[in-house]
Write a structure and sequence with these properties.
mainly alpha
Length: 66
């Protein structure tokens, strides 16, 4: 299964859960808004992760050189 198929499958699953939840549209909106904020936090953390690793590696190399 390629990435496009996985994305479409995930989207279909989300839409099915929302459709069968019987929640009002306002509740779904705020729930998804919270989920997106959580995903954004995880995404931003993952972007900063290589920077932190690089800084740690540089500190270790500097300590080893001394």
């Amino acid at each position: 299964m390629n990435v496009n198929q996985k994305l479409e499958s995930a989207r279909d699953s989300i839409m099915q859960v929302i459709g069968t939840s019987e929640l009002p549209v306002g509740a779904v909106y705020y729930m998804l808004k919270d989920v997106i904020r959580d995903i954004e936090d995880i995404y931003n953390t993952s972007l900063n992760q290589p920077i932190e690793n690089t800084e740690e590696e540089t500190e270790i190399e500097t300590e080893d050189a001394n």
